[in-house]
Amino acid sequence: PQADGGNDKKEQRLIVVSNRLPVTISKDANGEYHFKMSSGGLVSALSGCKKTMSFTWIGWPGKDIPLADRDHVNKRLLAEYNCYPVYLSDELADRHYNGFSNSILWPLFHYHPGEMNFDAAHWLAYREANMRFAEVVSNFCQSGDMVWVQDYHLMLLPMLLRSMISGESAQGEMVRKELGRVKEGVDDEVVKDVLGMQPGVAQSGELDDEGVEILDDVDEGEVLHMKDKPAGAGSRRPHFPRGLSTFQKQEMVAKEKGKDGIRIGFFLHTPFPSSEIYRVLPVRREILLGVLQCDLIGFHTYDYARHFLSSCTRILGLQTQPNGIEFEGRYAQVGTYPIGIEPMQFVEGLQKEKVQSRLKALETRFQGCKVIIGVDRLDYIKGIPQKLHALEVFLTQHPEWIGKVVLVQLAIPSRQDVEEYQNLRACVNELVGRINGRFGTVEFMPIHYLHKSVPFEELTAMYALADACLVTSTRDGMNLVAYEYISSQSKRHGSMVLSEFAGAAQSLNGSILINPWDVQSTADAIHQALEMGPEQRKSNWQKLFNYVSKYTAEAWGTTFVNELTRLSGLPPAGPAG
Ligand code: ADP
Ligand code: G6P
């Protein structure tokens, strides 16, 4: 139903919510603020939707923005970038991002349960940070809006948001109980730190108006954000006609608040693991319930969607359909939407004078030598040690290639406050040193290892230079590096060696697929990639490039938003692609 009282002329509003805002904010020595828009995948993905919709991005603006400067920062963010900030205290942000998101969900979703450090205080913080997001989004949104929540940092947000805008959700009650349960296992001081850090803990009663139950006898210290307190002394509830589903009741209450017809989408950029892995998570029910209040839930691959649905069946006992799940009278549609990149950024970037001259310099430097490129965040899911082991085996078995091939491995520093990432860094340093020590000479080093982010021009020149690209992720939601390499190879037609455990392997037909745990077959694939004839390389590349050009980031964003629009009964956002 159209939620704005039938006013066709009203522009459709799209609110995108992600943990990070797509703008990097810094302050110089003179106290002046600088804003830099990032050019990442999501930003490109939404360019299609922006043409036809009014668009706002809500997210965390980063640390170190003092209270006194926030008015200024907020105004500029909104006026210049359509961004709206959610401020979190440093400690809350740290426990939410490093703690729950990257020490619990990230390893589990990438099949590393051994790296998962479940800590109840991190769960409290995750829940609290999601709550802060929900408060900001619920204040911002109005009838008929579409809210698109991104990724594993915000999996409780759909439920909390629904609960805040409508005041009716059994799940709110359930999460509150869970909060009580985990509180018992956590040091009181930690609870006070995590929950007491922000002044809004008991504030959300303010949002309680027209027709929403209000409890005025809640224990001190209890989190009061939920609008679905059990009926009791001092509570009032709206008079619902008999037989309404929870969804219909939610919509009734939301309508009184001018917030009905809000459609919520969620997209997971990581894998969703098999239910056998997922069920290890102590708060497995809460996370599933957190996203089930969506109208549309998207994954990169069919397997991730299937794992999600079977987790809902096995953990929540819900019946599912191949394309979704009915829950509390609402149908949460579940679908597959593989993301892409904007290949023209690389094709055109390559034409730039600066990139061409850098490419020439690199070609001279590596004359007579083949180049394999690896580009990864320094993350244990990227299989960098496996890649290095495979190179070692390859050079051992094919000594004729020593001095004739180099691996340029760019490793972008990532999540350096998390212990597993520190351990990985030490492990990679050690391996690179050992392999270079073994095969290197004064004139030649087989591995060129850079632990830093490199500028776009340098990255494009490196991609164009390389005869092969090696992606060895042990799990990866999609892996866009493979797409970027293919887009930069219109001249050389280099070989793409790709892990079968990356989401991209489902789409990039024309790659040499490997199991990165099988060191011998990866070493063989390196050999195959280097020895492949030009005709075979060209025909592989053509297939790959056709795919990458068709399934772009913009096509992804537009397809998802169109589907969400369709579910709301509103007109589509515009053609995909
Ligand atoms: P993830 O999302 O897990 O980081 P992707 O492969 O999907 O993995 O995306 C990685 C992005 O980070 C790509 O756009 C890639 O160009 C960029 N990137 C990775 N390493 C570097 C580096 N050393 N310097 C600059 N950019 C990098
Ligand atoms: C993955 C996640 C993203 C995240 C990115 C970089 O792609 O799915 O949500 O933004 O990695 O990680 P970072 O922790 O630096 O944001």
UniProtKB/TrEMBL annotation:
CDD domains per record: GT20_TPS
GO biological process: cellular response to heat; trehalose biosynthetic process
Catalytic activity: D-glucose 6-phosphate + UDP-alpha-D-glucose = alpha,alpha-trehalose 6-phosphate + UDP + H(+)
Class of enzymatic activity (EC top level): transferase
GO MF annotation terms: alpha,alpha-trehalose-phosphate synthase (UDP-forming) activity; trehalose-phosphatase activity
Pfam (any one): Glyco_transf_20
The protein's Enzyme Commission number: 2.4.1.15
Alphabetically ordered keywords of this record: Glycosyltransferase, Transferase
Top-level taxon of origin: Eukaryota
GO terms under cellular component: alpha,alpha-trehalose-phosphate synthase complex (UDP-forming); cytosol
PANTHER family: BCDNA.GH08860 (PTHR10788:SF106), TREHALOSE-6-PHOSPHATE SYNTHASE (PTHR10788)
Protein name per the record: alpha,alpha-trehalose-phosphate synthase (UDP-forming)
Lineage: Eukaryota, Fungi, Dikarya, Basidiomycota, Agaricomycotina
